[in-house]
């Protein structure tokens, strides 16, 4: 993420300027357009004041705004606006009742911006790291169409769907991760305490040991004597991986690799496409132009590879291609989905078809997650069996050889 300065004109024609943090200048232009600002000039900028080392540490240590906070905020804003409560009064009540200090500070900033005459969407856009560009764009559409309370309800259902998908994925991965962690702990215990004890017994007999036993003893000695080297190696590997995935090429490569992982990759792809289709349906129903909607959606799919394909779809639509043609070139949708997109374009009900696609992918993801444990369990059992076999042969083969020699 980099900082960009911008100059533009708002809906009244007044000149506005400021600094935004985004991935690139295209994302800055999308954020400005979503708030009704027509960008005139965009360029890279240094970090604004307040981003010194002290403030950076404060930003890292303060609690983040969670999806649950946005869910509760969207639902409460819908209820308050529907009841006829003024926005300033609604924000004041939500500010007093919020338990997240970061979100409470963001609500305070929104109220101050509203007092200064700025619209709600622009006020939200100024709270960096709290509201996504897609969320701000939906609020802007609600302001311009007079459907603000309805937009908040749609955003609530949209965020609820995202939270449901994340919860399902976490619950499905809990059992495999627990088994893998147990295997790692067991291997460490055996190598640090069990194998050294047997190694002393074998050394007393001065017998020729099998190759597998020598390998286990050598690895055990390394773990006992150079455990700190292994710890530093793990830390360095994790730090290097995080630094690599923080780059654009690294993130794109890793996200593309994740989609190709056996069993889990197809689940991640379907969940990502379900979020894309539901976001697309919400954008179209709310009146967001398709080109601008694809730009915003590409920043919300949580996968750099799919986001890159969505950006290519946007470029194709800008050239005059249909959504069907650009979706076919993306190579991520199934033939059934392509048929639904074709019907949606021809009948003028693309939003309904996108909603059907999202629900279809959601059902498939739910089924895949329910059977994920059954699909992964044989692989885990085989891996566990191989580890146990290696340890058993390495530990007990010398004992059997010594027993046979004693019998003879």
Summarize the helices and strands and which ones pair or pack.
Blueprint: E1 2-9, E2 15-22, H1 25-34, E3 38-45, H2 53-61, H3 67-82, H4 87-97, H5 101-115, H6 120-125, H7 133-145, H8 148-205, H9 211-225, H10 227-245, H11 248-258, H12 264-285, H13 290-297, H14 304-318, H15 323-330, H16 335-347, H17 350-370, H18 372-407
Antiparallel strand pairs: 1-2, 1-3
Helix pairs in contact: 1-7, 3-4, 3-8, 4-5, 7-8, 8-9, 8-12, 8-17, 8-18, 9-18, 11-14, 12-13, 12-17, 13-14, 14-15, 15-16, 16-17
What does the model show?
This protein is mainly alpha-helical. Helices cover 75% and strands 6% of the residues. It contains 18 helices and three strands. It has helices at 25-34, 53-61, 67-82, 87-97, 101-115, 120-125, 133-145, 148-205, 211-225, 227-245, 248-258, 264-285, 290-297, 304-318, 323-330, 335-347, 350-370, 372-407, and strands at residues 2-9, 15-22, 38-45. The protein has a three-stranded antiparallel β-sheet, with helices on one face. Strand 1 (2-9) and strand 2 form a beta hairpin. The longest helix is centred in the middle third of the chain and has 58 residues, at 148-205.
